[in-house]
Amino acid sequence: MITFKTIRWKNFLSTGNVFTEVNLTKSKTSLIVGENGSGKSTILDALTFSLFGKPFRKINKPMLINSINEKDCLTEIEFSIGKNEYKVVRGIKPNVFEIYCNGQLWNQESTLVDQQKNFEQNVLKMNYKSFTQIVVLGSSTFVPFMRLPVAQRREIIEDILDIQIFSVMNVLLKDKIRENKEDIKNFDYQIDLIKEKIQLQKNYLLEIDKKQKADISKKTERISEFLNEEMLQHNLIKETNNKIEELNKEIETYSSSSQKLKKLNTFLIKLNSKMQTCQKEHQFFEKNKVCPTCTQDLSDTFREEKISSGKSKLDEMQAGYDDLLEAIEEEEKRFSKWNDISKSITDNNNKISQANFSIDSIRKSIAGLEKEIKELESGGGDKKEAYSKLETLVEDKKQLSSQLSESKKDKDMLSVASGLLKDNGIKTRIIKKYLPVMNKLINQYLQGMDFYVNFTLDENFEETIKSRFRDQFSYASFSEGEKARIDIALLLTWRSIAKLKNSVDTNLLILDEIFDGSLDQQGGSDLGWILRNFDDNVSIFVISHKEQLNDKYERTLNVEKIKNFSVIRETVTEVA
User: Fold this and answer.
1) CA-CA-CA-CA torsion sign (556, 561, 566, 567)
2) Which is it for strands 555-562 and 29-34: parallel, antiparallel or unpaired?
3) Spatial CA neighbour of 492 closest among 550, 538, 426, 436
4) Is the whole model's pTM more than 0.85, yes or no?
5) Residue ranges of the chain that CATH labels 1.10.287.2610
6) Strand arrangement, sheet containing 463-466
7) Is the sign of the CA dihedral 285, 288, 293, 297 positive or negative?
8) Among 192, 362, 442, 444, which residue has the fewest nearby CB atoms (within 10 Å)?
């Protein structure tokens, strides 16, 4: 329960620079009286400004500052909730908004807007509309419950029943539903997009397969060509080896030519030397008749014999020389033939070496092609990379499909929650539970004011009013006095329901000039009896300009203007 203790203000509206203070717990019933314009309703504006930052009446915030002093506008309210003592200080010029809990500043880290929101949600447990329906009933700017649109009626009842959390949850749920729809739409889009990518990747893999098959076919054909070429080289080697064998056989017949030629040339050199010696001796005997060594005369017979034998010997040697030249010439021809055959063998061996080199190169090329074919058949670099990318895309699609499935499950869950949180869902069930109690209390308070009708609100908070004779009426069809009785009955009912629900329970009830207009004397008397017999823990303030009501209240607060400033004088009376 919120127990409001004191409210004080200065430089607020028509109040001066000295604090005006009202004890809110001093008496059970208090009457605030004064002439029009004296400042009777200032307590209402100070109260709502302190708690909610705005006045009760339709007054612009800058106009709350006293027009004479024009600064240091300040209101302070003290109240307790359980064991916690609170004090709220709010001012203009300078701007002030301070909340104290047990003497310590409360929640100063947040912004002013957040601080006010937290204050209403976590401390007061009610907003401005609920406060003005439960604590205040006024005749000026106050809009009675029955004159509010249906949506605002529901908002107030939800606040009283402490089920506005479901409305907050519904707002948050709508955001969740919107996010869920966006997620599903996004997942659908991503899945469609990844499906296209998968199909493109599959087509790319098919193109790679097609290209690889073509490459394998070309490489296989190339291997066949290499194998044919290798076969030709093998055939060439075989033919060349056969030819070399034939040449080796042939060269054997000329293998001794070199040795013979050497020997013949040696003989030729020796024969040539010997012939030169014989030639010199022959010429000596032909030219000389005296021995040069011993100086003896050579006989003609001796000389002729020597010349004749030398000539014969030279002729024989010349004949042998000629024969030897012929033999050398013949051996040179044989040696030349041997050289030709030997060169041919070398050339053929070179051919075999070249063929073997070609075979090695061919085999290396074939091995390289076979390796490339094997790589192509096993996938190859491009195919492996493309297949790996396809697997990644498929896995991504699987994950997205899983996320989409989860989002659709969330959608179903959110849809169920949305059905529960709608106005015709769980809130309506709770409201239906309390409607009989509400209607019972409303009719009790109406009967207490001698207004005997059967007043019923349905779950849409539309009224059905029947007289004793079962005639049906609407709120608009009643007189202003009768409407005032209904408004008061509703106000008292909402207070009782709030206390029953333990959502909003306060010690304060303020009635602003409801006796001065539409409520007749009997209605005022009946209301007075109800208020006097109301909960002992409630302090009731009635604002009026009818001073003849003084004897019906324990305390009277007279408000009057002195030198353009509102002043409150308090008197205590015994209730008649």
Assistant:
1) negative
2) parallel
3) 538
4) no
5) 194-389
6) 454-457, 463-466, 472-473
7) positive
8) 192
Among 71, 16, 73, smallest CA distance to 39 is for 16
Q: In which element (H, E) is residue 7 found?
A: strand 2-10
Q: Which of 146, 163, 133, 165 is nearest to 431 (CA)?
A: 163
Rounded Cα gap, residues 24 and 46, in angstroms:
13
The DSSP H or E segment spanning 192 is helix 164-252
Residue pair 33/559 in contact by the 8 Å Cβ criterion: yes
Question: Parallel, antiparallel, or unpaired: how do β-strands 29-34 and 539-544 relate?
Answer: parallel
Q: Is 322 helix (H, G, I), strand (E, B) or coil?
A: helix
Report the SS3 class of residue 66: coil
Query: What are the backbone angles phi and psi of residue 163, rounded to the nearest 5°?
Result: -115, 15
Nearest CA to 494 out of 437, 535, 541, 423 is that of: 437
Q: What is the pLDDT of residues 304-348, one digit of tens each?
A: 777 788 788 888 888 888 888 888 888 788 888 888 888 988 999
pLDDT in tens, 124-142: 888 887 787 678 765 544 5
Q: Exposed, middle or buried: residue 563 (CB in 10 Å: 0-12, 13-18, 19+)?
A: exposed
For 530-552, write each residue's pLDDT tens digit.
566 566 678 888 888 766 665 67
Q: How far is CA 193 from the centre of its chain?
A: 18
Percentage of the chain exceeding pLDDT 70: 89
Cα gap 65→49, rounded to integer Å: 12
| Residue pLDDT, tens place only, 559-568 | 988 888 889 9
User: Rounded to 10 degrees, what is the CA torsion of 567, 570, 571, 575?
Assistant: 120
| CATH code given to domain 2-125+504-572 | 3.40.50.300
Amino acid letter for position 227: L
CA-wise closest residue to 93 among 114, 117, 69, 129: 69
**Torsion region of 70: left, alpha or beta (phi above 0 gives left; psi -120 to 50 gives alpha):** left
Closest by Cα among 571, 514, 565 to 38? 565
- 95, 72 contact by CB (below 8 A): no
Q: Which residue has the higher pLDDT, 527 or 105?
A: 105
Q: How far apart are the first and last CA of the chain?
A: 30
Beta bridge partners of 470: none
194-389 CATH fold: Helix Hairpins (1.10.287)
Quote the pLDDT of residue 440.
92
DSSP string spanning 28-42? SEEEEEE-TTSSTTH
Residues with Cβ within 8 Å of residue 446, at least 6 apart in sequence:
452, 453, 455, 485, 486, 489
The closest of 1, 12, 87, 17 to 42, measured between CA atoms, is 12
At 499, list the tokens: 């206390």
* CB burial of residue 440 (10 Å; 0-12, 13-18, 19+): exposed
**Region of residue 294 (phi > 0: left; psi between -120 and 50: alpha; otherwise: beta):** alpha
- Residue range(s) occupied by CATH 3.40.50.300 in the chain: 2-125+504-572
The DSSP secondary-structure symbol of 471 reads -
Q: How far is CA 405 from CA 184, 194, 399, 401, 409, in A?
A: 9, 16, 10, 6, 6
Contact indicator for 559, 34 with CB cutoff of 8 Å: yes
